[in-house]
Amino acid sequence: xxxxxxxxxxxxxxxxxxxxxxxxxxxxxxxxxxxxxxxxxxxxxxxxxxxxxxxxxxxxxxxxxxxxxxxxxxxxxxxxxxxxxxxxxxxxxxxxxxxxxxxxxxxxxxxxxxxxxxxxxxxxxxxxxxxxxxxxxxxxxxxxxxxxxxxxxxxxxxxxxxxxxxxxxxxxxxxxxxxxxxxxxxxxxxxxxxxxxxxxxxxxxxxxxxxxxxxxxxxxxxxxxxxxxxxxxxxxxxxxxxxxxxxxxxxxxxxxxxxxxxxxxxxxxxxxxxxxxxxxxxxxxxxxxxxxxxxxxxxxxxxxxxxxxxxxxxxxxxxxxxxxxxxxxxxxxxxxxxxxxxxxxxxxxxxxxxxxxxxxxxxxxxxxxxxxxxxxxxxxxxxxxxxxxxxxxxxxxxxxxxxxxxxxxxxxxxxxxxxxxxxxxxxxxxx
Length: 431
Description:
The protein is of the alpha+beta class and 431 residues long.
């Protein structure tokens, strides 16, 4: 390997000059290659660029499906000869998000640049660029995962236990943050004294709150009252919901064909669109991938990646299972849990995903259809390509009068927004 350093006289001087003049292009390409290899979740978001000068909030809108109903056993869409029917009322939801800024940089002293093998900003910082490329991708994926696991996906416990999931109907709707199901009050699986429901995820499956998901922040047995972070649209009496808790996830609750099949069934049930090729996509951690590969139904990526029926491969794709194409994600969302019967709210994903922990007891494996969430940056910038910024001291840099340091870093304006949690499933497995 050749290091472009002070090689002395000869042809190397010209090469050094050439490399110095083109360094930003070279490092940007290397940085983006690293980002591309590590980003796993962000590329599956619906991209909506925000024009500069139009504020920092992005507005999404979606129509809700038209309900199919019966009146006295007759389909409401049946027409009477010569008579126009009543107009069908359409419902929609506004979904907004505000861009935030993310970034980081390193300040490399002039002494380090002269003494360290990988310290020369002007002549060879590939190692630093790799570090920041990995950092940028990890941060952006984590920010996106926080939104998707907290507000953008229906939850499935890997053990498929019936005591972990409850399907209910709203009997009282008081605000965007609180509702009740009186039938839930008599459910003995969730004792209010121990806040057993507090680490759960609730997802609305019909009605005006359709397709919204939130973590449970409080539950009261009296009246079956559930408190959640504010919804984008208020729920109404008669809306149906599913609430799932991870508090019974234990050793042996691994990712399996059965719970991947359950996730796929749910996505199909709620009409989640496929990705090109007719597949849903799963982002799974390496331990979960290892469990799947031991199953005889597993199809390794090498068996379908070539030949006449070749399809485009996703970065990190390792195989398919139960009609779902699986991508290995080395930094999945993990969170702690509290065992059933233990008071507190420190378990579960937490409001806005605040309970993320790299050493958490439970892993959230995501199974996605298209358009489950959106990602937004300013127009002209790609969420998959946060810009690398390399600065060397020069005569115009008045903030660095003695040329004592240079900087390497990245920065981007970015936000992720859950669009339809019924188009995404998170399967909770033991970490």
